[in-house]
Amino acid sequence: MTEEAFDVMVVGSCMTDLVSQAPRLPKAGETIHGHKFFIGFGGKGANQCIQAARLGAKTAMVCKVGKDFFGDNYIRNFKDNGVHTDFVGQTSDAATGAASIIVNNAGENAIVIVAGANMLLGSGELQSALPAVSHAKVLVCQLEISPQTSLRALRMAQENKVKTIFNPAPAIPDLDPDFYRVSDVFCCNESEAELLTGSSVANVEEACRAGQELLKRGCGSVIITLGPQGCVVLKARESSPKHVPTAAVTAVDTTGAGDSFIGALAFYMARDPTMPLEEMARRANEVAGVSVQAVGTQVSYPFKRDLPAELF
Ligand SMILES: Nc1ncnc2c1ncn2[C@@H]1O[C@H](COP(=O)(O)OP(=O)(O)OP(=O)(O)O)[C@@H](O)[C@H]1O
Ligand SMILES: [K+]
Q1: Selection from 263, 221, 210, 197 nearest residue 59 by Cα
Q2: CB of 42 closer than 6 A to ligand 1?
Q3: 15: Cβ below 6 Å to ligand 1?
Q4: Collapsing DSSP states into helix, strand and coil, what is residue 148?
Q5: Which of 88, 209, 233, 240 is most exposed, with minimal Cβ within 10 Å?
Q6: Which of 210, 263, 269 is nearest to 241 (CA)?
Q7: Closest C-alpha to 101, from 40, 143, 189, 169
């Protein structure tokens, strides 16, 4: 490759959020009036990639969108954020992934997700991205695309000694055990840890125990995020789990906080692989802590210029 290698590559999902705010959720067959509508950029893969890019990582997204307005618009969004789009495919066989969301005045919601084009991302696209993936510093995957595509991408990275971060979200109960073995860092939230271990994860102590269980399944390290409590970090060669607390902030909207954390983690892993994982997690807590202080998903993600210099 003549071009400089990517710091962070994400193989994952893109979704357009179509959000309507209404006094209440409609019943079957009913039409009601809402008071606000907006379109947001979402999808776990894209969110994570955009956060890494905003911190200054050289990023590329491997994903599939529809040959439609939302797909064109999403490609524009990647470009606006400095994300390379050479591996963003467009298909006429399915629509761009979309989440139709209705939020009522109590903050409750009803959501229909149509994964659409995301499910058509497969081995063809991975093969085209292989030369870039094999030279990247960090590869990140989640579960909003076909799990087999994620697993194949992670294997591809591992075979080429590229560091991997796997975020098993949204969680599936019958996760292929190979996912643990191909993860340098296995990073999930409390509910995912609960589903995967079958034990309650409601506090730091339980998270440490769940982390130990996940670690035994073969990953290099485990991070379990704990909302306002920060996260716990466990490393395969170290016996004791570490709690990494975070500063108290006034949270207004935690949507997308987990993705902000993972995008930041990927940035730090690519920039300085010798930095202790706890320190990367401490800094990722701080980045995600900024995202919860603003409404929305990607629009709430901080840029390097918004953050204290000590994080860089
Ligand atoms: N209330 C909060 N105060 C400070 N930091 C927070 C808060 N909520 C989340 N964070 C930060 O974001 C990280 C991820 O949050 P969380 O564990 O809630 O992930 P998540 O459940 O995947 O989030 P979401 O589903 O809302 O995107 C936390 O580890 C922490 O660093
Ligand atoms: K937010």
Answers
A1: 263
A2: no
A3: no
A4: helix
A5: 240
A6: 210
A7: 40
User: How far is residue 239's CA from residue 120's CA, in Å, rounded to a whole number?
Assistant: 41
Helix (H) / strand (E) containing 52: helix 44-55
185-201 pLDDT, tens digit per residue, is 999 999 999 999 999 99
For domain 8-23+35-307, say whether CATH 3.40.1190.20 is its number: yes
pLDDT above 90 (res 271): yes
Amino acid at 165: I
pLDDT in tens, 140-176: 999 999 999 999 999 999 999 999 999 999 999 899 9
For ligand 1, mutation pick of 223, 292, 298, 301 (most atoms within 8 Å of CB): 292
> In the prediction, which pLDDT does 34 show?
97
CA distance 11 to 185: 16
pTM of the model: 0.96
ipTM beyond cut 0.90: yes
Tokens 């994952």 belong to which residue? 12
User: 210, 278, 267, 201: which is closest to 244 by C-alpha?
Assistant: 278
Instruction: Quickly count: other Cβ atoms within 10 Å of residue 128's Cβ.
Output: 14
Domain map (residue ranges) of the chain:
8-23+35-307
| Token pair listed for 8 | 């962070």
Q: Measure the CA–CA gap between 309 and 312, rounded to whole angstroms.
A: 6
Query: 287 pLDDT exceeds 80?
Result: yes
